[in-house]
Amino acid sequence: MSNKKNKIIYVTIISISVISIILGVVKLALMVSKNKSDNEKLSNSINTISVKDQQNNNEMLNSVKEENEIEEKEQEMQPTFVEENKTEEEKTKKNEETVSTIRKTANNKVIVIDPGHQTKGNSEKEPIGPGATETKAKVTGGATGISTGKTEYQLNLEVALKLRDALENEGYTVIMTRTTNDVNLSNSERAQIANEAKAAAFIRIHANSVDSSSVKGVLTMCQTSNNEYNGYLASESYKLSRAVLDNFVKETGAVNKGVTRTDTMSGINWCTVPTTIVEMGFMSNAEEDELMATEEYQNKMVVGMVKGINEFLSE
Ligand SMILES: [Zn+2]
What we know:
By secondary structure, this protein is an alpha/beta fold. The protein folds into two domains: 68 residues; 213 residues, Zn-dependent exopeptidases (Aminopeptidase). Helix content is 54%, strand content 17%. α6 runs antiparallel to α9. The N and C termini lie far apart (90 Å). Zinc ion binds next to loops.
C-alpha cells in the first residue's frame, strides 16, 4: 500500500471518531437540558399551587398513605399462599409482627372458657366460617361415657367450672360461654363471645369418642396457617395448644396424642383470638371414661391446663 492511501484511511478513521464524539456530547447536552427544563416546569407548577391547595394535597397524600397502611395491616392479617416464596427470615419477621399485634390487642387477663355442647344439639346450619358457603350443624349433642353413661356436655361443664375457679385464683378474669347445660348456643356464637372479650386465650373443653374402645389419651386442636378465615392466628393457637397439652400430660400421665391441626371446625374458624380445643380423653374408653368422672383426675386436668395457659401467656 502507498503512503497516500494510508494517509486517506487514517484521516477517515479520525474524522468518523471525532464526529461520533461530537454527536455523543450533543445528545448528552440535549438530555441534560430536557431534564433541567422538566424540573423547572415541575418546580414552577409546584410553586403555582396555592397554600390551600398544598394543604388539600397533603391531606390527600396522608389519606392515601393511611389507606395504604390499612391495606398493609389487612394483608398482614390475611392468610397468604405466596409465603412459600419468602425467605425463612422474612417469614419469621412477619410472624413476630403478627404475634405482637395479637398480643397487643388481647386483654391479657381475660380467658374465655367454652364447655362444649349442651343438653340438646341444634342441627340447624351455620356457615363454617365468616362468609363461608359451606355450612355445619350449629352445635352437636356430643359423646356419652361408655362405662359411666355420663354425657359429654355434663362432663365438659364440670371440668370447665373447676378450670374457671382455678384461673380466677390465678388472677384471671374468666368469662364462661355457658354455666348451665340447658342453653342454645351455636359454635360460632361461642367463638364470638371470646372475640368480643378480646380474650388472651379461648379454651374449649371437650371429650372424645371413637368406635374403637381401646383408644385413649388427650389431644388439643387448632387451625393451620392456611386457614382462610384466621390462618394468621395459627402460630399463637398452636403455642397455646402445645403448652396446654404438654402440661396436661405432665399432670395426669395421660397418653399424649399431639396437636391436631384442622380447618373444618366452625368454633375455630370464627375465632379472632388464639384458641385451642382440649379433647381431655376418650369417653369410648372405659378406663378413661371412669377416670375423667372423678374429682381427683378432674383436678389434675385443671392444674395441667392452668399451667399451660400461664406458660403460653408468659412467653
Ligand atoms: Zn365434643
